[in-house]
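Limitations
The structure tokens in this dataset are predictions for the assembled complex, not deposited experimental models. Users should treat interface geometry with appropriate caution, especially where small molecules or nucleic acid strands are included. An illustrative entry is reproduced here so readers can see what is and is not provided.
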Amino acid sequence: MMEFTEASPLMPTDLSTSLKTWQQRIRQELWQQVIPFWLNHSLDWQWGGYFNCLDRNGQRYDDKKYVWLQGRQVWMLARLCRMYPEHPERQRWLEAVPLGLHFLRRFAYRPQDQRVYFCLSREGQPVYLQRKIFSECFYVMALAECARLFADPTLMQEAEQVFAAIWSWVSQSQTDWAQDSIPPGRPRWPGSPEVSELAVPMILLNVIGELAGSYPEQEQWCLARIRLHHRPELNLVLETVAADGTLLNTPEGRLLNPGHAIEAGWFLLEYGERTGDPEGSLQTMALEMIAGSLAVGWDAEYGGLFYFLDRQGYSPVQLEWSLKLWWPHCEAMVATLAAYGITGSLEWWQRFEQVANYTFAHFPDPEYGEWFGYLDRQGQVSQRFKGGPYKGCFHVPRALMWADQWLGRALDLQVQGVNPQNKRR
Amino acid sequence: MMEFTEASPLMPTDLSTSLKTWQQRIRQELWQQVIPFWLNHSLDWQWGGYFNCLDRNGQRYDDKKYVWLQGRQVWMLARLCRMYPEHPERQRWLEAVPLGLHFLRRFAYRPQDQRVYFCLSREGQPVYLQRKIFSECFYVMALAECARLFADPTLMQEAEQVFAAIWSWVSQSQTDWAQDSIPPGRPRWPGSPEVSELAVPMILLNVIGELAGSYPEQEQWCLARIRLHHRPELNLVLETVAADGTLLNTPEGRLLNPGHAIEAGWFLLEYGERTGDPEGSLQTMALEMIAGSLAVGWDAEYGGLFYFLDRQGYSPVQLEWSLKLWWPHCEAMVATLAAYGITGSLEWWQRFEQVANYTFAHFPDPEYGEWFGYLDRQGQVSQRFKGGPYKGCFHVPRALMWADQWLGRALDLQVQGVNPQNKRR
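Predicted assembly:
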């Protein structure tokens, strides 16, 4: 496997064929292999919600319902309904949306403190409440997407209210809590510095993009935070920095999560496209984040993106550091395609093809559908299940859906003979 | 690599030579490779305590001090001082003991609630307090061992007081907490059953063995709990069962941790030896636990013990399930040797050799000393560091020390022509 930067040259004459071939392959995977897996195996018509823990062939190995994945599946199916209004299978997706939405609203949400559980029993009893805010974020995304799908302003109002709560926790403006509340967050002890985690501004920027309201203050906060993590002088994106942006020389402070950084770059590209980016400074930052993280994260020996690295080359303390996970590859396909679509640069198309070739050669399971989630460093399947506590109906279909959209846009522009970069400016 | 049960036959005439060869190899590793690594690299003469995060060559990659490992290193060095009173290097160990002991007592212990931090900064400021009780357990072991080494009854009294607190939490007899207390344990939610975790009775039985006082009620509780986890009908030891012993058909309830089960079996064997076991029922259970866990946990393809397995063959949800960790191999060497020493059965000697051959072929680092901690399934080094948040001066030297002791005992009995089994009864 070559190093990432040495992608083989591609003749521009092949390009249109390549775009069409990839679009066909991606659509076939999405409609024949991925969505049917979830519709056939995950829907719990008895108790509501979706089963998450599904073995290679769809067999259930646990009844628990993980709320990140409940919210994400609602979002995913609802978004497909809006994105592909003419698809012949749309009615099946549409029926599956309220199954998750009602379960979430009834069982995952805690009215007393606006918090959202992390895990529920099959019947909806709480199993676990995380200290993190991500259950709440995916809950908001599910509600907001359904508000649009069903043209229901009450759902959007609920989504905005929970988002307001999340923001009050993150910005530390909420100080009084009711008696039976369980505030998020860990206590900070005097021996550890106050830090900024990339995950927080990144997910909030993504959530804001789903809401109807306008959040300029929150957006600026997210952008400023992301800038603390992007270090052009190192050509790296750091997962954790001190709250004032200082680099920390500890395993946490040296941690790289290339897939996460690439996802953040993609969110920024999309944000720039959506809101306008007159000086192109967001685009520049986003492209640097994606290119730099692909370069540092790619395994020159066996191919694929490492899960974690230490920026000074120490062994990460995370035991799973060398695994190849499905989601960084999903995010990298979308990010490189979006970068290609926006810049029109062949370099980005070559990056897309290198990621997509590895991804399609290793993750799909033609026999039972969906993708394997966890490979060892050499690319062998390490965990055979298709759904687990952190893997559900989300990253694979979302990546395939966005890839289909970006490929379609690039093909349209080719037909029109437009260089996308010129079109934008 | 053969399956575990197919160990090659060994002629009894070779046995005495084998015992001596192994003892020599083990002593050389302990004195030349392992203890010097920690004495040369871990001692913080400036702030006290021990550095834990040491790269392959001993270089520090983080200053944080993990309290499990602080307590364990105090225990280890103090026990070596007592076990090898004539060793020429003893003075260096003896000087390193108070370095950790004073740091622990001054910085790790919280007088307001008798809890013990999980992690401290180099200077001793708190970094993290776990919800688990293991920091407290290793703190007690450190104090008790030092009480013996220094003949200091105050230290033993402190150890017994903290143990009393741990017991009050585990048995839920402590109900009122001071204002600024942080009780251990997670809240239990209605959707998840009350469970028993093997780790708790196992570590408590180990801690009780270090104390001066008599704890018959606590010992009986530990034995009864361990019995819930040992399932002769399955020939398995389960990490987690319902509090009433019911099997749980969930990933948690199906989880096997062979190294942990083998360690528990060894603690039981030792407990039976120490306290007397007139009907031999503890010994029978312990030997079943060790033999069953070796059989199920051994990787027939690449050798070595898996970290985690699912008893019904699903992929464990733990991403690191297939790694080969140093400590299960350490525990398995001691457990098989103890089983051989107690039963005199050649089968156990063969099991020891199979484990020890794999272990010595893969984990030691002749170049820089100590052992690698984490190998991938195929046996390649996955994490090159020698010390990390969960690996310190403990499992390797403890295993080598006990192996030396058991080999010495077996050799003494051979010289006397005694079958150990006959001697015991």
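Some entries come with short summary sentences. For this one: The domain at 43-173 of chain A is CATH 1.50.10.20 (Glycosyltransferase).
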